[in-house]
Amino acid sequence: MGALAVALLPRDAFGAAVGGFVLLCLLASLVSWRPRPTAPALVVAGFAGGVLGTASSIGGPPVALLYQHETGPRIRATLAAYLTFGGVLSLVALAAGGQIGWPQVLGSAVLAPFMAAGFALSGPLRRYLDTRWMRPCVLALSGGGAVLLIARSLF
């Protein structure tokens, strides 16, 4: 569905809507909503994250927001597995839909060293990101991604 959205929907309007939706969920979780990773919630968040991740590259927040009150190791393990599997599925769907070309491959090559650096730093830094810091980090990264997506869509 995400690859179909990329092919058929206006990119900027869709990106702004996705970013707005993520910010709305984030604000709701700050005020009163306390999401829990129950089986039905995970099905909805996984589906939404898969579609949104493929269509707008911001697929982590739906699942991350469900896990925001969990322990650091559980959040990291769950998101690592989810984002790896989801990324592979998104790439396959986008490639099958003819949505991957040299600009995307070049962009990936430019960003690969930063991904490697993040992976190398993640081991030593994880002891500082315990339960007390995980929720603020999850909320900040989700909100930051949403704001950047909205800005990219509008400007």
From TrEMBL:
GO cellular component terms attached to this protein's record: plasma membrane
Keyword entries, A-Z: Cell membrane, Membrane, Transmembrane, Transmembrane helix
Location in the cell: Cell membrane; Membrane
Membrane topology reported for the UniProt record: Multi-pass membrane protein
Primary location group: membrane
Transmembrane segments: 12-33, 39-67, 79-100, 106-125, 137-154
Entry-linked InterPro entries: TM_pro_TauE-like (IPR002781)
Family: Belongs to the 4-toluene sulfonate uptake permease (TSUP) (TC 2.A.102) family.
Name of this protein: Probable membrane transporter protein
